[in-house]
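User: Show me a protein chain along with its predicted structure.
Assistant: Here is one chain, sequence first, then structure tokens.
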Amino acid sequence: MDSTCSTATDTCTGDSSSTNSLAVYASAALSTMGLSTILLMQLDGISRRILSPPRLLAKRRQEYRYVVEQSSEYNALMVRQHIGGGKGYYDPKMDLSSTWEKITKNDTTEMEEIIAEILDVKKPSPVIVAMEQDLLDDHDPNTFYLFLAFPPRSSGGGVATPGPPKLYRRVQLPLVVFCEELAKAFEGQMTSTALCFVVDASSGLGSETLTTVVKQSNHGVATISNPAWMTSLALLVSKINKTHYITTQQFERIIFSLCRLDAWRVRDSIGTSRTVLFSLPGQACVPLLLPLIQKVFVHERHVFVYDGCCHSVEMGMALRNQYGSSYRQQAAKEEWEEVSASPKVITSTFSMAPLRFNRELPGTLANLNGVQASIVESWMASVDVFLDMKSKEKKNFYTPFVCRMGFLMKRSGIGNGDGRDMSELALKNVLEYITGSKSRALPDEVMTKALSSLTVMRTKFEDAVKGSKLNAGEKILIEKCVFANKAILIGEKTLLDTVQPKEDWSLKAAKKLKSCMCCIPGEGDEEEEDEDGDSDDGEGSKPKEGMNMSAPGAFATKTRSNYIDGKAQFAFDPTMFN
């Protein structure tokens, strides 16, 4: 807490520095006590009156980071409790260094034995507890360690991770050195299991919907939702410029080895589709983790599921109303799947990776209350890094299944279809991609279960946001924030390769826009299926006679279609951010 607040103070100079620092301390204290969102918003309202927009944004970002860091630490404590016997047995004071088998970077033989045990198909795989420095180590306090826990063998056999809390064997290993050796071991292992990564820009609506539907359809896909270790890793990545202990290349090896380790852990749950679905923990983690995951798992399946900014803000506000603002979020059940997951209210509504410098952004975000500003910034950061990666797809080969929640949620209007219900076809398309079943039909019973699950999820989320609807004025202010990021609304990055619901769906749109956002896309532009379509040598055609270009969305509409087909419309039309 002290280091966080001192950083906030350093960013503010002059007469308001003490005021800014006091505000950070007060907000952190309120969050620590777990007081309501209303009180936090009242304090933020005072800050909006006395701080300039840049100082307000700096203060808010310090608060966001404090909450995420504290949540990650608390989450790790809950995991330690789970592997230490549960609530009635675990005592944090007894969880000392002597409880863990400590293996140093020089203990090569011991690490080889641990890896051999991990790869033993007859033994249950360890769970990932934490990634931390050992501050009690006087000889090497700067080294980060990976804390693993090996579950006890069940009397009935099997290799699945136990659900209820039990006493696990606990091992502490040097993070960088061990993950490098583990990565080499997995690289030398033959596997027929595919990985699918779902990243979110919808305040958790998309990732939770897809994960739940996939689980309920029961077509042989094992799921790992919001793993807490990924949030911890994202925090480490965010400090890469402040600490030189871990390089970018080492982070790549770490995420490769740990993803493969977690996928190996659930091998008993993999069925027909031979796929493990990873749902990344919230849109706040996307800017930090997506570039690494894409580079390491370039040939695996990737899904980017998104919603409009205003819809995402409403969803995020609903999460805050349901769970509050405290980082002390506890799992509903003492089951490993829930205990080991990061709280979605934290990773979906508290920004972790500030947007790149934008002169207009502090002023526009200052018009929003703290809750809305945090959600907007985390959503924009997720979308921005996605668009940045898409602009470099010839080099990074990033070709994900771009899933628009408007289709699945039965919304109509620009960007969501031509008024027909496309939810069933859209669901079928994304399931075909996740399960690798595009070339063969999904069984009828799988689609029946999936549609039933989607209906339940749609009703659940529609009910959840009823008390969090934005008014017209709030929507206008949010749209101004989005407009401030020109990368989202101008240039070739504007057009997302959103998969259109149809039987012969494609990951790539037919062609990309050549015009700016003020023009109708050029009528004479050729379709771009080759790899040489980045040059901007086409001219946009003039508006049709009689067309009112002052009407919202006029620049994004053609008479022949009302949905994004990759030729005539913008995936993020400004009229659709509500």
